[in-house]
Amino acid sequence: MRAWLQLGIVAVLGGAGYLWHTQADAWGVPAPLSLLGLERPTAAEGPRAAPAAQQVAVVAAPVRQAPVVERMESVGTVRAREAVTITTKVAGMVTAIRFEEGQHVRAGDVLMELDSEALAAELYQARASLDNAQSQLARARALPAGQAVARARVDELETLARAADGRLRQIQARIDELRLTAPFDGRVGLRQVSVGALIQPGTAVTSLDDISRVRVEFSIPEVHVARVRPGSLVSARSAAHGSRVFEGRVTVMDTRIDTATRTMRVVSEFDNSDEALRPGLFLNVQLTLETRPTALLVPEEALDSLGERSFVYAIRDGRARRVEVQLGLRLAGEVEIRQGVRPDDQVVVRGLQRLRPDVPVRVTETMTRPTS
């Protein structure tokens, strides 16, 4: 009976010693292995792997390196690069309209003419007066030395010739005002007048827009002002064009921030050779703030949040190390890690609820994710 009792005590002490030894690293308590006849592995031998029964089965995923683009969204409005409403400076009767609605015109093309018959008669008279004054001046200068007129007379004739020339130029300018021309290349809009109409100064005739390139205006919050500069990439979509994406660049930024909205106006320019973007069109705009070519990404499932702090379990040396991380962008199913993990790390994705810091783990499955 006494022998059996001694054998039971030895068995109990041996089991307790083995448990103490296997959990010593996790609990941080050294096991008196020498009492049990066991030796702790030396530094040269490295850490002894935990028994499979003590390892927590988890699903892991490697930290992925990929470029990420940080963007902000806004809404914008399309403006023509150059836009003007064609109006008249003088009153008159419309005698001819030289454009078709929606036509592309060149700078200097005549768009409309007003009645100029009266001014044409005045121009004829002014030209005759100029010819007469120039003829008298030429004869006075051509007289022989003995028949030369007084110098004062020559000066008077020169004055009369210049006055006649000025009168001619004045009438010609008034005639030019009766002919409306395009100030720049562009496309005319709808016609607002008809032939025979008597119009007054300021009457709108049509619109003219240069939309070969367009400007898109939008606003950005003041917190992004320092990250935007001329040349920043802008992409835009419109419900009118479905999935088509238009790309442009920031050309100019306002010098002031609106104190009411705490935003700043930004103007970007888009190529519009096919004239798909029309002035006044509403656009959903995405402005590129920063591009990081080698960001570290982990699945969102790997995050273990505690208040405003975030953690992941990185598998290092066969154990789950709880690491605090700094988050960046959130993408589809992934999150960027700015600080806390290494490119060669694996993070626990499933089985987080069974983990505690530095517990031995066994990876039963490695998740793979697309590289694009």
Structural description of this entry:
This protein has 372 residues and is of the alpha+beta class. It is 22% helix and 41% strand. It is built from four helices and 19 strands. The protein has helices at residues 2-27, 33-36, 117-142, 151-176, and strands at 56-62, 64-87, 92-97, 104-105, 110-114, 179-181, 186-188, 198-199, 204-221, 233-237, 246-253, 263-271, 282-299, 304-306, 309-316, 319-330, 334-339, 346-350, 359-366. A hairpin with an 8-residue loop joins strand 10 and strand 11. Helix 3 packs antiparallel against helix 4. The protein is rod-shaped. Mean pLDDT is 83; it is low at 3-7 and 9-46.
- The number of helical segments is 4
Q: Give the distance, in angstroms, between the N- and C-terminal Cα atoms.
A: 73 Å
Question: Measured on Cα atoms, how large is the radius of gyration?
Answer: 44 Å
**Overall body shape:** rod-shaped
Mean pLDDT: 83
Give the structural class: alpha+beta
Helix content: 10-25%
Q: Biggest sheet, open or closed, and with what strands and sense?
A: 15 strands, mixed
Instruction: Tell me the series of helices and strands, N- to C-terminal.
Output: HHEEEEEHHEEEEEEEEEEEEEE
E-strand count: 19
**% residues in beta strands:** 35-45%
Weakly predicted, low-confidence segments: 3-7, 9-46
